[in-house]
Amino acid sequence: MKKIWIWLRNLFCKPAAKIGLGVLVTVGFIAGILAWQGFNAGMAATNTEEFCVSCHTMHQNQEELKETVHWSNRSGVRAQCSDCHVPHDFTDKMARKIQASVEVWSHLTGKIDTPEKFEANRARLAQNEWDRFKANGSKECRTCHDYNSMDFEKMRETSREAMRGAAERNQSCVDCHQGIAHKKPEKTDARNPAFDGLIQAAGNESVKVGGTYFNVYPRELYLDEAMSKVAGKLEVGAPVKVLQEKGDAQQVEVSAWRKSKGFGRVWYGHFAKNITVATLEKAVAQDKQLVKIAESKEDPNTGLIWQKSSATFWIKKGEVVASTDPIWSVAKDSYKNSCSVCHKQPDEAHFDANTWPGLFGGMVGFTSMDKDTQGLVLKYLQNNSSDFKKPSH
Amino acid sequence: MTEMTAEKTRNSEWKKLLLLAFVGLPIAMFGAIATYGLIVRLLQIFLIGLPGA
Questions:
Q1: What are the domain boundaries of chain A?
Q2: Which of A106, A126, A286, A295 is the most exposed place for a label (fewest CB within 10 A)?
Q3: What is the bridge-based pairing of β-strands A249-259 and A320-321?
Q4: Among all residues of chain B, which has the CA nearest to that of A39?
Q5: What is the DSSP letter of A188?
Q6: How many Cβ atoms are within 10 Å of A335's Cβ, its own excluded?
């Protein structure tokens, strides 16, 4: 160790005896140029498409890009992998390269080394990129796309207002434009963590027999107390009257409206409003012993006869709460967060209960809400729509 | 200093010069940049978060 130290000290501190200072500096200078050139060439080489796609894992990702405007368009400008995925500033780029060496490692060690394994991790990996773009305001996009250079008049009318608003807020591109270069990850069936809070609240609820409670999570209705025969599905936010409790099961009465036309499988919370509270199996819905009809009424708008019906079912204990407030507050948060990313979300009472499903269905594809959250938010919107509240304007 | 030792010194100095300039220092530069990148990346993970705009 000491020897190396002395050798190094001599190397750097002892003047050269036989080589001129000019020669030393010149050789150093040339070596410096070559080294820096070589380093940059290395950086550039690891930024090329050929390098990225040389891992078999990445083949499919390039094929996806080839379908999009970022690959081929009338102006012949192409964004390749690194244009979007590698920061352009030196420091951030170096940090990203270090991060990328981890990615190369996970390819070499086989953690993610096939398109199938990539697919299995796509949601997580996409989220990493979305987080990065969120943090830096989609800086890499904006190397080419600049709000200041946009001619809003040349935009389609439908895009214009959204883009003006985004420019005013200096919004990150990928907030709205997810999935423009690659396939969006499949929506997972993983439960929205917000439901866990609701289920916990429901677990603490002391249920009184005879009281009306609200379901916190979409789940099965059963015909028997052993909960073996499925009768249908109870929607989130659906009101139920608790009749008795036995072991893990709860007997509840569901009263709702249904249309006399068809099998009467779908039950709605209110007369002539398409807000589903339960969907029954066909045989169950047709069972006259089980389903009691209290009254029939014609909806003047559609001419359909609606029947006020009720039936008793068994459900798993501990998943109802006494008030819809906690349920709607979860829904409201999801609604606000998911919708206001791209536009000002409309007031809940701006539309009526039968208008919301169409509107919501048209927009929800742009969000990352999972299925249960979608159902929850739609029910929240319908239950707080203009049918139940005076509109604020 | 004899002719022989002077020649030896000159050879050894050239060897050192070329090794240092074309091998040692480039490796050191690469190492320094990689270390810098690693430090920034670790800071990003644990302290400062992802880079901003």
A1: 49-175, 213-319
A2: A295
A3: unpaired
A4: B30
A5: P
A6: 24
